[in-house]
TrEMBL record:
Compositional bias ranges of the Basic and acidic residues kind: 311-324
InterPro entries: DNA_brk_join_enz, Integrase-like_cat_sf, Integrase_catalytic, Tyrosine_recombinase_XerCD
Domain of life: Bacteria
PROSITE patterns: TYR_RECOMBINASE
Name the record gives this protein: Tyrosine-type recombinase/integrase
Residue stretches making up the Tyr recombinase domain: 229-442
Region annotated Disordered, chain positions: 303-324
Gene3D superfamilies reported in the protein's UniProt record: Intergrase catalytic core (1.10.443.10)
Coiled-coil portions: none
Keywords: DNA recombination
Amino acid sequence: MKTTYDVKLGQVQQRANAFIARWRVAGKGRSKSFRTKGLANAFLSDLRQAAKAGEEFDVATGLPVSMVAAEPEGPSFLEFGQAYVLRRWNSSAARTRETDAYALLTLIPALVEDAPRRPAAEALREVLRIHALLPEGRRAALNPSQAAALCWLEGASVPLTALGEADVLRTALDAISVTFAGTPAGANTVRRKRAVLHHLLEHAVEQKVFNTNPLDGIKWSVPKAVTSVDPRTVVNPTQARLLLDAVPKVGRKRGPRLKALFACMYYAALRPEEAADLRVRNCTLPEEGWGLIVLEKARPQGTKRWTNSGETHESRSLKHRAERETREIPIPPVLVELLREHIATYGTAEDGRIFRTSTGGTYSSSAHSYVWQEARKLAFTPEQVASSLAARPYDLRHAAVSLWLNAGVPAVEVAKRAGHSVDVLLRVYAKCMDGQQDQINGKINDALGS
């Protein structure tokens, strides 16, 4: 290593979206770019202190000898996490973007070096949420306190290569195992966040940072998540009719406008986002007999910062389906009649959507939930209201699929109508399939000689 004491420090200059720290070593100009001015000034301050202390500078890198050894190779975990989110942005749905970011809100603040003046955890998550994990055009302007928090995070984030160490990965796994409030996280939440971490590290393997995914070498049990529907949530046809009849009694506008939407979830097993994007052109509604729904799109709800349009709802392809792929669902006369009445009473939105607010918008999940809970109070006994029976609007879809299976409809046909694969269908609804228990008990009685 060739070293020198010939060092001249410059200033920080702003160029586009970066701040450039400039200095000269042995007559050769040096520069390094930073995301914030504070981080660039901090870097020059470190160089100045090294020069005052009489430290030699490496001619090849332009850095003090002590900093050459400490200089991390490759990106920090923060930088790689940012690149990971942005790389997947155009090909991901809004909810996927939010899931990725939500996992990184936990992981990035946890994977940092010890450094003085650490900001509060919520402050770190805030700058990630509103700025650092978004594309340039969507980033909120930061106030001085937020800018300082981001500067601290940029300086303290561990190198990506550190995730090759078992203790660092265990820190990450410990972090995703608890909520932001410090309580144990739900199994599904932990599994989703681990999946994001695993996928991020797969990208690091592709970029030759690691030979194999280091997370695969950690002996850590992924929490078991409930994947099957609880039969206690499933209503029978009589209970479903009572609930649907109670919905229009909730409020003057919301309830009456939502009855047919909830009916689509029960009689056609539509997901809420599928019902929200249902249009007149998707429906065949004869005056008599069965009708048909041909689903083309779904309209999921997301957070504005993660959607393409900047709105909470936007149309996209059906879940688990390719772009432009449709799903056909025959619908019984009772639903045909409800849809015809709804269209005749309320008309449609300008884009043909059947279900809309009085101003043409899309009802939020909170609006669905409010109306549903009020309807449960009207239709159910106090004991049923306190139970898990149809606790969520989504349970109407579970009730529909369970009804079809128990009515003897072949699993292949049920899966086709519900938008599932057969194996997922049978696994999710295994506990809701009745009709065989008496036969099995009889066989056991025969074997016992009873």
